[in-house]
Amino acid sequence: MTTYRIAEAAELLGVSDDTMRRWVEAGRVASTKEDGRTVVPGADLAALAESLADHPDREATRASSVSARNRLAGIVTKVVKDTVMAQVEMVCGPYRMVSLMSSEAATELGLEPGVRAIASVKSTNVVVERP
Length: 131
Known about the structure:
Elements: E1 3-5, H1 6-13, H2 17-25, E2 32-34, E3 37-41, H3 42-54, E4 70-81, E5 85-92, E6 95-102, H4 103-109, E7 116-122, E8 125-129
Antiparallel strand pairs: 1-3, 2-3, 4-5, 4-7, 5-6, 7-8
Helix pairs in contact: 1-2
């Protein structure tokens, strides 16, 4: 039987180790001990992943009203503006995202290095918004 350590399970689901531990403690996903470590059975992790995909916790966010489902929270690392366009670079977890938008939009959003933002990815477009 395939099992996953807490850190591995968290990475697969895109959540923190702490969140995964809380879910295990709350009984949201089954776990066992293997060589003194807490592990999650692969089948149970798959069921949780399916549950999260089918019923994501989006009610508290704007995601419930947007068609783009690939929303990556991150931090702006670089903004290059000219008179018309802006190039906004972000780091969202392990991903580097780059978005091209009007300079006016970048200014209105207050995008500058160090600002939290969300990259909404749909097809080949990256839409940046502030949380």
